[in-house]
Amino acid sequence: MFSKQALLQKRIQIDQLRENNSPSMRQKHLLKQSIESSWYRSNSAAIPKDRSAAPLYTLHNEKQSSLKVAINQCAEELKDIAEQAGMVVAVGDIASTIIWSAASGQMQSAAEKVNFIQGGQWREDLVGTNALALSLKTEQSSCVFSNEHYMESIQDWVCYAAPILDPYSKQILGVIDLSTTWNHHNSLGLLAAERCASIIQSALIEYHQQHLFIRAFAVPQVLFNGKVLVLTPRQVEILSILALCPQGMNLENLHQALYGERKVSIGTLKAEMSQLRDILGGMLGSRPYRLLANVEADFLQAEQALDAGCTEAALKLCKGVFLTKTESPFLCAWRDFLESRLSEAIFKANETDILFKHLAYFPDAIDAVERLIELTPIGHPAQQMLMKYKDEH
After folding, report:
1. Are 217 and 321 in contact (CB under 8 A)?
2. Measured between alpha carbons, how far is residue 192 from residues 87, 158, 197, 198, 327 in Å?
3. Which burial class, exposed, middle or buried, applies to 26 when counting CB atoms under 10 A from its CB (0-12, 13-18, 19+)?
4. Contact, 317 vs 102, CB < 8 A?
5. Where are the chain's structural domains?
6. Mind giving me the DSSP string for 16-48?
7. How do beta strands 88-93 and 98-103 pair?
8. pTM for this one?
9. CA-CA distances (angstroms) from residue 51 to 55, 92, 125, 151, 157?
10. Domain 211-297 class?
């Protein structure tokens, strides 16, 4: 524990840094680079000055993701931690929306007042600097102390957050945040958040029995119960189609979605389905054909991120072209639709670092180049480079 005097001094120093838009080199050591960068992004975002609570999103019969199932399994343990520590514990998805929370008696009212509850949207561009969003952005554990927060209504809080990783695919599924009042700041807070993340990750390992994960961007890969399957490109396409059509498809519709007008016999598709059934055991249903396992996929997560308006999360997932060699008319049409949505989101993006990272994965992403030109000040060396890049492509 820190002494109250030390914590008060820390608050005073942060106030001085906030008033000074360009902290001196002498002061730099007092402020983490991640916090300084977040302040800059928060000041650049169109966040209402009078915003005192996160926007609230009503969750309507949302799909039971692996993260939600895992939370349900360890909810009582997490509630006990919140109560014993005098904290509020919240789990956010990849779009920084809280999907579950529990609070001690001391923090319940404070959490409800600022919508640090289920449905609260804690994206940085909506509420400014906060640990939940910062941990998702940096993909690391984060602590935001007191007036390091952007919104004044939570400047009496200290928050510790840690990302939650899928134990097999290593994708970030969400983030867990432990929050209390600033005067209870503890150097072990981050370790506690990481411990809570590991509790959820242990529950995820149990959930992964009869679980299928499809990675379709860049180099396709399918994991079943945590193990990589050896599949043909056609079988990966079939699984991707069925993942996009959870209600299932009959043989004729699946043949049309996969082959279109190509002259491939129904018998060939039947043989593919027979092989897949052997590989997946009883997890491939028929009449109609459908996946019976718990299914997740990077392209479904990207679509969900776009639905939630979280461009950064979507672009992080799209690290390559979706099934670049597919000739399936269904999958090609879906890829075109996704790329159109991504392009629309790119032209609304305001953070140059996100766009530069996207450009690293997609050198031909002219939409990102054009948006970066719009965001870069006239005469800036980067703009000249981008203009030249655009001309060459």
Report:
1. yes
2. 11, 13, 9, 10, 48
3. exposed
4. no
5. 4-207, 211-297, 306-392
6. HHHH-SS--HHHHTTS-HHHHHHHHHHHHS---
7. antiparallel
8. 0.76
9. 9, 20, 12, 7, 16
10. mainly alpha
Cα separation of 86 and 19, whole Å? 32
Instruction: Give the tokens for residue 164.
Output: 């939650």
* pLDDT tens-digit map of 211-265: 899 999 989 999 998 889 999 999 999 999 999 999 999 999 999 999 999 999 9
Helix axis angle, 131-138 to 33-44, nearest 10°: 110
Arch. (CATH architecture) of 4-207: 2-Layer Sandwich (3.30)
Which of 114, 109, 65 shows the shortest CA–CA distance to 308? Answer: 65
Ramachandran category for residue 377: left, alpha or beta (phi over 0 → left; psi -120 to 50 → alpha): beta
- The DSSP secondary-structure symbol of 182 reads G
Please compute, for residue 76, the number of CA atoms within 13 A of its CA located in the half-sphere on the CB side. 1
User: Cβ(200)–Cβ(175) under 8 Å?
Assistant: no
Peptide bond into 163 cis (omega under 30): no
